[in-house]
Write a structure and sequence with these properties.
The protein has helices spanning about 5-10, 70-125, 130-140, 150-170, and strands at about 20-25, 30-35, 40, 40-45, 55. It is mainly alpha-helical. The chain has two domains: about 5-65, no CATH class; about 95-170. The model is unreliable at about 180-185 (pLDDT under 50).
Amino acid sequence: MKLTKEIFIEKFGPPARFSFRGQCYDGKTPTTPCICGRKIRFCFIVYTGADQKVVLGSCCFKFFAGTRLADILEASQVYLLNVVVETQKAEKRLADRLAFAQSRKRWNRLRREAISRLRAYRKASGKTWLPEHLWDMEVAVKAPEPRYRQSSKAAKWFLAKTEYLQKKLLEADRVSGTMGNEVSTEHQG
């Protein structure tokens, strides 16, 4: 049965007697039952003239048309939506910064491993030139870090470079007798 203004007044009393104490929240998903029977996400708690607590959604604001509460509820809805949007933006910025820090840390770890492997190759072979796959790795290692303003773009750069460097490290054979970060030496007997 559809909730009409007459049924609303009969059930809860005249809308002009309702009060709103600024209590509103985001339920994150539309699961909270509204007085009209709908499932709502954005909930506004109002009190009837008899001080009974009632949960409303914006779908029920129409019952308060022509009362002082109508404008207050509309303003509260704007405020709540702004809080939700700004919270989502802040969470995204935080997630982007965290992704940036993690991707940069991983890239630096792989970069150090690649540098030590290049040094070990040069020390073991005695040559300054590098085979193509090691030269590609050296070029990737020497790539300058980006100076992006947005940490999400920088994180994407670090992820792409990390994947490339990891692929090159897998292609490159370890120098025999080394684990990648040590230099082989000749033992004298």
